[in-house]
Amino acid sequence: MSEQNLAGPVVVIGAGPVGLAAAAHLAERGIDFLVLESGSGVAAAIQEWRHVKLFSPWRYDLDSAARRLLEQAGGWTEPELGTLPTGGELIDSYLEPLTKTPALSGRIRYGAEVVAITRVGFDRIRTDGRERAPFLIRLADGTELLASAVIDAAGTWRHPNVLGGSGIPARGEAVAAGNIAHALPDVLGRDRERFAGRRTAVLGAGHSASTTLLELGELAGDVPGTEVLWVVRGADQARTYGGGEADELPARGALGTRLKKLVRSGQVTLVSGFRTEELAPTADGQVELIAGDQRIVVDTVVNSTGFRPDHDMVSELRLDLDPILGSTRALAPLIDPNEHSCGTVPPHGVDELTHPEPGYYAIGAKSYGRAPTFLLATGYEQARSVVAALAGDWTAARDVQLDLPETGVCSSNLTVIGSAATKQSSCCS
Question: For residue 162, how many C-alpha atoms fall within 13 Å in the half-sphere facing its CB?
Fold first, then answer.
């Protein structure tokens, strides 16, 4: 590596699509690397929503370097680029085969949860000689590793936003944890019994909320007694209903249209202007949501309020974070959800992802902080640019190109949509 001559490989955190894209580019550049994945297998977060269908077709879901490695290894059949994969198909037909290519085989360590990253011998305050010290990475089991650089593609899936309407947990939220479901439950499959014949409130105004509402609406049509409430903080749902026929991804554009019909038909009851202050378990096992004088009693609350990055594990590194989004300060105005949708985020790369801590880069969904405008294609270009910079190829690093479909809106970190069938769809991972 021409940029750094430090002990240890480049460590990539996360074996999801963007982390493996970074690994593929590192392999092509001949840079030593190691991928750390907290789960027991590749793309552990996506495994939890493998039933979901992406609304981005395959042509937006494949990284260029990863595709080349798969083609060179042989035995891989490229999927039909115009079709929409499920999360499971993304793993089975792309990511899992990628991990078995000669370039990546043996370079991924599973069950390796990173809990802290710092510099050997340096806390955040010390400066002199800092850039020459290798990174020290500590795992949950106490193991410590050295790294010459860190590409953090850990994502945000494990860190959902809280239900409290003021950004902190609602009173009683921890006590009511048993009544709260993570975003994107498998309503029509694995989790059907939890929702069939019961009363469910879906909190959130993003596409993940919309997908769950669509599936619950279908379940309500099949199972008497199934009630569905859509609970939102705002009063205008135009952003959630999205771009309709103007969206270049038809599956994504259809989401708002279908959801609007469910609300108008009464199959989904919209409760707007509800900022959750408290959750109170009831004697019969339900939970009451409280916002001022408003009360809602349900069996399950689906938290579809979005996600936030975990910066605790890098608290001893020198990061320049935007005070609002939690992305790098330079990236924030390019991804601000008040100004941009998924498809209008401008091209960006290593320059916008650089922190005052040389050699540390957050890419993928984590790089966006709380902004919900992330797409896989964006993450792949981030990975390519950052790896080119680590290789000292600044011409390639700064030649950032990004081809994204126009969109209606993206309102959560995991933007999803129902297809014409009963499956869900998502633009990102």
Answer: 17
**H or E stretch at 426:** strand 424-426
Distance CA 203, CA 54 (A): 21
Identify residue 103 by its one-letter amino acid code.
A
Distance CA 42, CA 109 (A): 10
Separation between Cα atoms, residue 219 and residue 209, nearest integer Å: 15
Reported as a pLDDT band with limits 50, 70 and 90, residue 345 is confident
For position 245, what pLDDT does the model report?
53
Q: Which residues pair with 418 in a beta bridge?
A: 424
- DSSP single-letter state for residue 86: B
- Cβ contact 189:216 at 8 Å: no
Tens-place pLDDT, residues 37-75: 999 999 999 999 999 888 789 999 999 999 999 999 999
CA atoms within 13 A on the CB side of 17: 31
Contact 254, 212 (CB under 8 A): no
CA dist 336 and 80 (Å) reads 33
Q: Could you tell me which of 8, 1, 6, 18 has the C-alpha nearest to residue 353? A: 18
User: Where does 17-134 show beta strands of DSSP type E?
Assistant: 33-37, 52-54, 108-110, 114-119
- The secondary structure of residue 366, as a DSSP letter, is G
Q: Rounded to whole angstroms, what are the CA distances from 332 to 161, 298, 348, 368, 369?
A: 19, 37, 11, 8, 9
CB-CB neighbours of 375 under 10 Å: 26
What's the distance, Cα to Cα, between the start and end of the chain in Å?
30
Name the average pLDDT for the chain.
89
